[in-house]
Design brief:
This protein is α/β, with parallel strands linked by helices. The protein folds into 2 domains: 3-66, Ubiquitin-associated (UBA) domain (Helicase, Ruva Protein, domain 3, Orthogonal Bundle); 89-283, Vaccinia Virus protein VP39 (Rossmann fold, 3-Layer(aba) Sandwich). 41% of the residues lie in helices and 19% in strands. It has helices spanning 3-16, 22-34, 38-43, 51-65, 70-74, 98-110, 129-137, 150-162, 196-199, 204-207, 223-232, 251-261, and strands at residues 76-79, 82-85, 118-123, 141-147, 169-173, 184-189, 236-245, 266-271, 277-283. Strands 5-4-3-6-7-9-8 form a 7-stranded mixed beta sheet, sandwiched between helices. Strands 1-2 form a two-stranded antiparallel sheet. Strand 3, helix 7 and strand 4 form a beta-alpha-beta unit. It starts with a helix and ends with a strand. The relative contact order is 0.10.
Length: 287
């Protein structure tokens, strides 16, 4: 069996199982099995696939057929142009979260020379993609990354080390902003926002493999974000910004909640590339 034949057979199996983008999924798994990049794979498609590698590839495909996410199978995922280690200890990074990072960087750079030392916190950091991305693109940033999971924090530290920003990030075990002192110029949060009643309708790849505690958030799905907003009153610095990712239908409720806690702040919701409300933005006035 050649690499091309193995790739075609795997893509066919994934297609029949209803896996999205079966050809791409089959290709990513084959590249992982071989340890090659895309260019090398396509240069070698007519080569025979060794029996031991064929067995390895079939095992990887079988895992995907059980709806295990590809990022967990191969152990990494790209986010904001960086490659991050992934494991079931934390959610898989998603493209929509890049809007939060883009907004944060845009806000900091918009302040120009006024920001020489940026104090930031990444609430519910998970694998650390927000904290690491901010530290990578904002060398003046000092970030505290919080999470309730020791395993997630360990994964975040691993990613910080891999991207040479460990000296900029302090990983702290704790719930939301509890146990933190002082005020922050930037509070960033990608907290759970799936309502309890819709959790069981999530695709099996998410429901059966990604950590439930990082997804489910009460009856409306806004419980943790609202709790964080209440705590942020004592932690967001004058002239600072709070950014919180949320579901497409939670913008109005969260704007109202934010207004209750920050009545004089500039509050808005930013939309993602699909035009859906996705990011709560709270800017406080300078003293």
């Amino acid at each position: 069996m050649t690499l091309a034949e193995a790739l075609h057979e795997a893509a066919t199996r994934l297609l029949k199982a209803g896996i999205d983008d079966p050809r791409l999924e089959a290709e990513v798994l084959l590249r992982h099995a071989l340890g090659v990049d895309r260019e090398e794979l396509f240069a070698r498609l007519q080569e025979p696939l060794a029996l031991e590698l064929q067995a390895l590839y079939e095992a990887l495909v079988d895992r995907r057929l059980e709806h295990e996410p590809t990022a967990y199978i191969i152990g990494h995922k790209e986010f904001f142009g960086l490659d991050f280690a992934c494991s079931p200890a934390a959610l898989i990074p998603r493209p929509e979260t890049e809007l939060l990072v883009e907004t944060a960087i845009e806000w900091v750079r918009g302040r120009g020379s006024r920001v020489k030392d940026l104090r930031a916190v990444d609430v519910g950091s998970g694998s650390g993609v927000i904290a690491v991305s901010l530290a990578t693109h904002l060398p003046q940033a000092r970030v505290i990354a919080t999470d309730i999971s020791d395993k997630a924090l360990a994964l975040g530290r691993r990613n910080a080390l891999a991207h040479c920003v460990a000296s900029q990030i302090e990983f702290v075990r704790g719930s939301l902003l509890e146990h933190l002192s002082g005020r922050f110029d930037l509070i960033a949060a990608n907290l759970p926002y799936i309502p309890s009643q819709t959790y069981n309708s999530l695709p099996p790849g998410i429901r059966e493999h990604e950590p439930e505690a990082a997804l489910r958030a009460g009856r409306r799905g806004t419980a943790l974000i609202e709790a964080m907003l209440a705590q942020a009153v004592d932690h967001l610095a004058p002239g600072g910004v709070l950014l919180a990712e949320h579901a497409w239908n939670q913008g109005r409720r969260l704007r109202e909640a934010a207004t209750g806690h920050f009545p004089t702040a500039d509050i808005e919701t930013r939309r993602d590339l699909a035009g859906l409300e996705r990011l709560l933005v709270v800017r406080t006035a300078r003293d």
